[in-house]
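Hey, sorry to bother you again with one of my protein questions. I've been puzzling over a protein and I'd love to understand its fold better. Take your time with it, there's no hurry, and the full record follows here:
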Amino acid sequence: MAMNRAIVIGGGIGGLTAALALHRQGIPVTVHERATSLDPVGAGLALAPNALRALDRLGIGGHLRALATPHPALGLRRPSGRWLARTDTAAVERYFGDPIAAVARAAVIDALVEALPAGTVRTGSAAALVSPGDGANPAVVSTPDGEVTAGLVVGADGIRSATRGLLFPQHPGPRYSGFTTWRTIIDSPARRPAAVGEVWGRGRLAGIVPLTDSRVYVYGAALAPAGSRAASEHAELLQLYGSWCAPVPELLRQADPAKVLRHDVWELADPLPAYHHGRVALLGDAAHAMCPFQGQGACQAIEDALILAAGIGAGSDPAAALPAYTAARLPRTTRIVTGSRRIGALVALRSPAAVLLRDAALTVGGLLPDRALLSRTAPTYNWQAPVLGGAA
């Protein structure tokens, strides 16, 4: 029985971060990813200061900061182009000690894989939990090579997590948020955007984030029935945002239609009773899938991974550490899930009167000093990553 071995089900950012953090703790780990490659679903990713501190503990934070494209300011506008709020990115770095680093999601995946020992990640390898184990018995996982045992299993298998379903069969599962999203990366646009940030309209938004190598990440979110699809998602974006302020229409016109991704947004609106059972821990979307309106989905998965690994040292029994993992993560992530849903409710406003009041409130808030504005995100961004190597 390999009680000192860990198995990670799912090779996304959360699963790979957990694998690297456990490896740093001296725990042999294998990642099973059912897809035949690790090509990420998504385009760009904003690594907030809380996530960057965690990645520093893994030795890859500096590399990812170097890949981020600096920009002087960001803010929030109306479709007309009128600013609702702006802040200086230098102020963000002064306040939190780190910027918000915008990088391609693929770059984060690559950095995590390169830091792991060769052979750790097995693609085209569908794994499923058979038994969660307990204090006396290992967990059992089925793999293409047969059933294997482990002292710890990490369920990082996403919002439709089969691992979560086995551990908590009575949980209602994910709910549709009402929003669908589009994402794309535009290679070498004709002009680099001068305005960075989001534009909020009635029931929809668009965002612009410069990346390295003269690329720009553009995304949109809009209210739509679940499962809705357009004959051309590129044409749909132009219809929704083609009359908005520059540079949104110009960038979208330059997008490659084949590279426009569309996904509905589902969330775990009902918190799980715990993030562990037996020898199994859930993390990321499997534990607390959230709306994207705070940009914290991947960041919270990274936090999960560090907290989980920090409580487990080489030679210790993972089962004994998992209750502390739930205690540390469940309250924090539940608050962030709720906060993301509340911001989504503001984006969802469509009546002219409600949107006018929302924009007026945002404008008043935007007049506050940077310190007052940034303090609102401090409970999220000021999180401190634990030290690996046996000390929390």
The chain has a mean pLDDT of 93.
